[in-house]
Design goal:
Elements lengths: L1 E10 L7 E10 L2 E6 L10 E4 L3 E5 L1 E6 L15 H13 L4 H17 L2 E7 L3 H11 L2 E6 L14 H11 L7 E6 L8 H13 L3 E6 L3 H11 L3 H7 L7 E5 L5 H10 L2 E4 L1 H6 L7 H6 L3 E4 L12 H16 L7 H7 L2 H6 L17 E5 L11 H7 L6 E6 L2 E5 L2 E2 L4 H16 L9
Parallel strand pairs: 1-4, 1-5, 6-7, 7-8, 8-9, 9-10, 10-11, 11-12, 12-13
Antiparallel strand pairs: 1-2, 2-3, 5-14, 14-15, 15-16, 16-17
Length: about 450
C-alpha cells in the first residue's frame, strides 16, 4: 500500500534532522520513501492521512518484557523481588499452558499497540504461543528462546534440538517481523555448565542473548557466594558477552562492571517502573551513557510494572534520574525519545531497519492526537511527548507499512475476542491457585 501522511509535525529521532514541522511522510509497501516538508514530485497514493493536529514519531521499542505475565497483573504485589519471583510467580507459572500463554500474549500485544509500541523484545517459555500471537497481530518482535529449561519444569536441561526446531519453525513466518535471540534468564538461576552451553549455542548460530543482570542487591552477594565471582565476571567467563547481549536492569553494576559492559558493547534495558515497584533500586544510567553503553527502555512484565505503557516509562525515567542526581539537565527529552526508539533498534540488531523515521527504513511509526488539553500549548514538541503525552493519546499505529490501529481502533485484531480469551485464561490460571487474585 502507498500511504501519504501530510500536514503533520514529525519527530524523526534522527539527530541530523530531529523535527520537521508541517511535513509529509510517504510510505511505499513496507518502507518509508520520503520524510520531508514538501514532496519532490507527485506519487500515487492509495491511502491519504491528514495529520493536522497530530505528531508522527517512530514506533516505540520495548526492549524487555514477559508478555504472558499480563495474566498476573496485580498479583503478589508489595514484595521484594526474590520473594515475589520464587514464592509467588514461579509457583503460579507451573500452571501455565500454551493456550494461556497465547491469550496473555495477545492481551499484552493489544496493550502495547494501543499505547504506541511497534516492536518488543520478549523472553519467557512455551514461546510458540508468543510467536503465534506476534504473527497474527502484525507487531514486530524479538523473541528470545531459552535452551535451558524453566525452573518450574523440574530437572534443569539444555535442549538444543528443540531450540533449533523453534528457530526453524518461525524463521520465515510473520513476513520477517520476528527476529530471535537466545534467552539466558540470569546467571544466578542456572548451573554454570548449562549457561556455557547456551552461550555457545548462541554463538554457533549467530544469535544475541537476552538476560537479566544485577537487578537486585541480593544478586550481588548471592552470585559471589555460589560461583566465586560477580555476575558480570561470570557472564564474561561463560561467553555470554561474545555475542550481542541485551542485559535487563543492571541496577547494581559497579564502575568496573560498567567498563566491562562497555568494552563488549552490551546494551542495557532500563526498566525504571519495575525496579521502583520491586524496590530493586535505580540503575546508574548516566554513568553508563558516559561510557558509551547503549541504554534502552523496557517495561518488564505486567506483573511487576503493572502496565506496558512506554510513554509512562519514558516519563518516569526522565523524572527519576533528574530527581536522584539533583541535575535537571541529565536525560533530556531527546535522549529519552532516542532510548525508546533508535537505541532499542540497535539493541535488537535492527539498527538501520527501524527505530527512526528516515527514507529506506521500515514503515514503523505512530501518530499522536495533540488536540488534548494536556498536550496544549506546544512550546517544545519533544518535551510534550516525554512529560505530558499518554499512551492513550496514540491515534494511529503503522508497522511494516500496515495500519494496525486507526483512529484508536484495531484494524487486524478483534479486541473483544482477546479480552474474553484473556479473562478465560486468567480464571483458569488462578481458579485453583493458592492466593488467587480473582475478585
Amino acid at each position: 500500500m502507498r500511504i501519504l501522511i501530510e500536514n503533520v509535525d514529525i519527530i524523526t529521532a534522527d539527530l541530523e534532522n530531529p523535527i520537521i514541522e508541517n511535513g509529509m511522510i510517504y510510505i511505499e509497501d513496507d518502507r518509508i520513501r520520503f520524510v520531508c516538508q514538501e514532496m519532490p514530485y507527485q506519487l500515487p497514493v492509495d491511502k491519504l492521512i491528514d495529520g493536522r493536529g497530530k505528531v508522527a514519531m517512530p514506533g516505540l521499542i520495548n526492549t524487555h518484557s514477559h508478555s504472558p505475565m499480563t495474566l498476573m497483573r496485580g498479583f503478589a504485589g508489595d514484595k521484594v523481588l526474590e520473594d515475589w519471583l520464587f514464592n509467588s510467580i514461579i509457583p503460579t507459572e507451573k500452571r501455565l499452558t500454551p493456550e494461556l500463554i497465547y491469550w496473555g500474549s495477545m492481551l499484552a500485544i493489544c496493550e502495547m499497540i494501543k499505547s504506541g509500541t511497534t516492536c518488543f523484545a520478549d523472553m519467557y517459555f512455551m514461546m510458540d504461543s508468543i510467536a503465534q500471537a506476534v504473527s497474527e497481530t502484525g507487531i514486530r518482535a524479538n523473541i528470545a528462546i531459552g535452551p535451558i529449561s524453566h525452573p518450574s519444569a523440574g530437572e534443569e536441561i539444555v535442549d538444543e534440538a528443540e531450540t533449533l526446531a523453534f528457530l526453524n519453525r518461525w524463521k520465515k513466518e510473520a513476513n520477517g517481523r520476528m527476529t530471535n535471540f537466545i534467552e539466558i534468564h540470569s546467571v544466578y538461576l542456572y548451573k554454570e555448565e548449562n549457561i556455557r552451553k547456551a552461550a555457545a549455542f548462541a554463538k554457533q548460530h549467530g544469535l544475541g542473548i537476552h538476560m537479566h543482570l544485577l537487578e537486585t542487591a541480593y544478586e550481588k552477594t548471592q552470585t559471589v557466594a555460589v560461583y566465586g565471582v560477580d555476575s558480570v565476571a561470570l557472564a564474561e567467563r561463560c561467553g555470554m558477552f561474545d555475542v550481542p547481549n541485551l542485559a535487563a536492569h543492571c541496577v547494581h553494576v559497579s564502575e568496573a562492571q560498567m567498563d566491562v559492559l562497555a568494552r563488549y558493547g552490551v546494551s542495557v534495558a532500563h526498566n525504571i517502573t519495575s525496579n521502583l515497584k520491586l524496590a530493586s533500586g535505580i540503575a546508574p544510567i548516566k554513568e553508563m551513557q558516559k561510557r558509551g553503553i547503549n541504554v534502552t527502555i523496557g517495561t518488564d512484565g505486567a506483573a511487576s510494572n503493572n502496565n506496558l505503557n512506554m510513554f509512562e516509562e519514558m516519563h518516569i525515567a526522565a523524572l527519576v534520574h533528574k530527581g536522584v542526581s539533583g541535575d535537571a539537565t541529565i536525560l533530556n527529552c531527546r535522549d529519552v525519545i532516542r532510548m525508546a526508539t533508535v537505541n532499542g533498534a540497535k539493541a535488537l540488531g535492527l539498527e538501520g531497519v527501524t527505530g527512526c523515521l528516515k527514507p529506506g527504513l521500515k514503515a514503523d511509526l505512530i501518530l499522536l492526537d495533540m488536540n488534548k488539553p494536556h498536550l496544549q500549548p506546544v512550546n517544545d514538541l519533544e518535551a510534550n511527548i516525554v512529560y505530558s503525552a499518554q499512551g492513550s493519546d496514540v491515534d494511529t499505529v503503522i508497522v511494516d507499512g500496515e495500519i494496525l490501529l486507526e483512529n484508536g481502533k484495531f484494524t487486524m485484531i478483534d479486541e473483544k475476542r482477546v479480552m474474553e480469551g484473556a479473562a478465560m485464561a486468567h480464571t483458569r490460571l488462578f481458579d485453583e491457585s493458592e492466593g488467587s487474585c480473582i475478585g
